[in-house]
Amino acid sequence: MLRFDRRVLNNFDWVTVLTLSLITIMSLANLFSATWNGGPSPSPLFFKQLYFFLFGYALILFILSVDYSELEMLSYVGYVAVCFLLIYTKLFVKVVAGSQRWIDLGFIKLQPSEPAKLFLVLVLASCYARFEAKEDGYGLLDLLRPAALTVVPFLLIVIQPDLGTALMLAFMFVSMTLFSRLRWPALTSLSITGLITVVLGWKYGLKPYQRRRIETFLNPESDPMNHGYQIKQSKIAVGSGEFFGKGFMEGTQGHLNFLPERHTDFAFAVWCEELGFVGSMFFLLCFFFLLLWGMNIALSARDKFGVYLAFGIVMLIFWQGLINLFMIMGMLPVVGIPLPFFSYGGSSLLTNLIAIGILMNIRMRRFQKR
């Protein structure tokens, strides 16, 4: 139900809008440089991402007109829908580069695993808000419902295969579960289960190329086939930027095609090379300020659903950002996690902009009673 009263407008979240606008400008400038081919005009990828941003901002405006509490029931409909899309992707989408991840809709290649992350946050927030923990916290049996909600899309994404995105779902479950307060026996059981899962996953669950990425990361010297080329070039790009950078559009690693995936997974490496430490720190300050402001929104939400939802969204953006940043600096293996709002990609960008719209919605309606 659409409703916009004067109090909502008076509480419009200008802090989020201004911070997001700064990040958007930096993102588009970086994409312009990373994809520039020497011609008189920007690349088609630049215009495509610009259209995604404009459409995403329009979606934010629409989201702000709907009370976020109505998302609580709609979240389960969206969760089921995205699970069916993941099944459809596995059964009917052709294999591209060894995986089945994208549904070609013409104007966009939809990657269902991206909205799956946001819908998982929504259903987990609803689950924890509806079923309150006892005084000493949730027990192991209390976690069966949220664990089941996580396992279904997790397995559907693993078989694509897309281990990086699947692990994001696991991070979301762990983050929101710890935030909800656990009893010590439940925490101990979850920790032991996690360790067993890691061991079994390493032995039986990883594809050869996934295992090779991790082995190369742990022992770069044992890389005769140069499988760690991406990380090496990324570290060179980051380090060569030094304090002030080489200058906008003056980077050599990107423009001379040494750096693979320079507009997607390794987009921030281009920014580091061209803008240096100063430019990188400015972006990181904007990015992490947005997350801190999101935590403030969570703490001031009017109800438990808003608290869990805002916290889950902050964790969703935080984990994606942290993993991508560690990846380009060679501190984690390459797992294909984009940097939110910065890496090229329609599904990821729109999902994260919708998440920001929900955050703003929670902030603007904190004064209302349910």
Explained architecture:
It is a single chain. This protein is mainly alpha-helical. The chain has two domains: 1-36 and 43-66 and 225-370, no CATH class; 85-206, no CATH class. Helices cover 66% and strands 1% of the residues. It is built from 14 helices and two strands; from the N terminus they run H-H-H-H-E-E-H-H-H-H-H-H-H-H-H-H. The chain has helices at 6-10, 14-35, 44-64, 71-92, 113-130, 144-158, 163-179, 184-205, 208-218, 229-240, 252-255, 267-299, 304-328, 346-364; strands at 103-104, 109-110. The protein has a two-stranded antiparallel sheet. Helix 7 crosses helix 13 (304-328) and helix 12 (267-299) packs antiparallel against helix 13 (304-328). The two termini are 14 Å apart.
| N-to-C span | 14 Å
Integer count of domains: 2
Order of helices and strands: HHHHEEHHHHHHHHHH
What's the number of helices? 14
Short précis:
With 370 residues, this protein is mainly α. It has 2 domains: 1-36 and 43-66 and 225-370, no CATH class; 85-206, no CATH class. The protein has 14 helices and 2 strands, in the order ααααββαααααααααα.
Write the layout of secondary structure elements.
Elements: H1 6-10, H2 14-35, H3 44-64, H4 71-92, E1 103-104, E2 109-110, H5 113-130, H6 144-158, H7 163-179, H8 184-205, H9 208-218, H10 229-240, H11 252-255, H12 267-299, H13 304-328, H14 346-364
Antiparallel strand pairs: 1-2
Protein name: Peptidoglycan glycosyltransferase RodA
Membrane topology: Multi-pass membrane protein
Family: Belongs to the SEDS family. MrdB/RodA subfamily.
